[in-house]
Amino acid sequence: MTTPASPRLLEHPAREEIRLEAVLHALSDAVRLRIVRELAAARTELSCSHFVLPVTKSTTTHHFRVLREAGVIRQDYRGTAKLNGLRGAELDALFPGLLDTVLAAADAQSAREGAGEAPGASPVTATASG
Amino acid sequence: MTTPASPRLLEHPAREEIRLEAVLHALSDAVRLRIVRELAAARTELSCSHFVLPVTKSTTTHHFRVLREAGVIRQDYRGTAKLNGLRGAELDALFPGLLDTVLAAADAQSAREGAGEAPGASPVTATASG
DNA sequence: GTCAAACTACGAGGATCCTCGTACAATGAT
DNA sequence: ATCATTGTACGAGGATCCTCGTAGTTTGAC
């Protein structure tokens, strides 16, 4: 009777529990915004280890948790890995267009700075947004 | 030779200096989001004293400064008062649709909570967004 | 000059946040 | 069972943030 079948469960806020202020705060950090952009560009769930971030593993865990607790991403264990996926549909139902708009704004800012912070591969990926 | 004609000048970030992270952070606070919503609903410049906020005057000044330094609002002195106006056009040029989307999200959340935090007059104002 | 109104500056308290290092837990393969 | 992989927990340091009170500045009216 130690631990049944459930491997490791993570708490997520219910859709109705998601607060706009928390979402905006979650997206207001450069590292987290980068994570979200990569997740959006990938269109799939990605493991934490997939990300190459300018912070340590501990800090990475922290940022993923902030995103999860704000309701921006969903996390599920898959073997030793933990898959992260955007809660795009839910967010869109709650705050129509918010995520896409922020993502577009981030792309625009990135392009303006001419930096190499592009999340996907080429900086000319955008065209189809829906 | 103490002070020429300039009454009191305030520093604002140039349009190109505005950072998405700073804007999102500025909007992630409940008090500031409320200020922005009222400003958007008013469609005019409003003095600080016009706002009835759950914080002291000192704190109000602080929040207005955060909004100004993030590039969300523009502040100008007008006699003893200080008029605040949204930098909507500039923000929209930089981050298309961002402000409107956040404003709509805030309205949606407000409506969901059934609270009396409505910025304008009636809670049924939305219809024409552009 | 005097007075009221509107806002700021400064400093402080307390909370939250970002970052890290080290130690630990869970899974899958050997 | 042993080991490597993946990610967590805990605690701590340092920065930033929100809030306030008090004192001070600028403007306009009397």
Automatic annotation (TrEMBL), chains A, B:
The keyword Transcription regulation applies. It holds the Pfam family HTH_20. SMART domains: HTH_ARSR. Residues 12-106 form the HTH arsR-type domain. This is ArsR/SmtB family transcription factor. The lineage of its organism: Bacteria, Bacillati, Actinomycetota, Actinomycetes, Kitasatosporales. CDD domains: HTH_ARSR. It comes from the Bacteria. Residues 110-130 are annotated as: Disordered. Keywords: DNA-binding, Transcription, Transcription regulation.
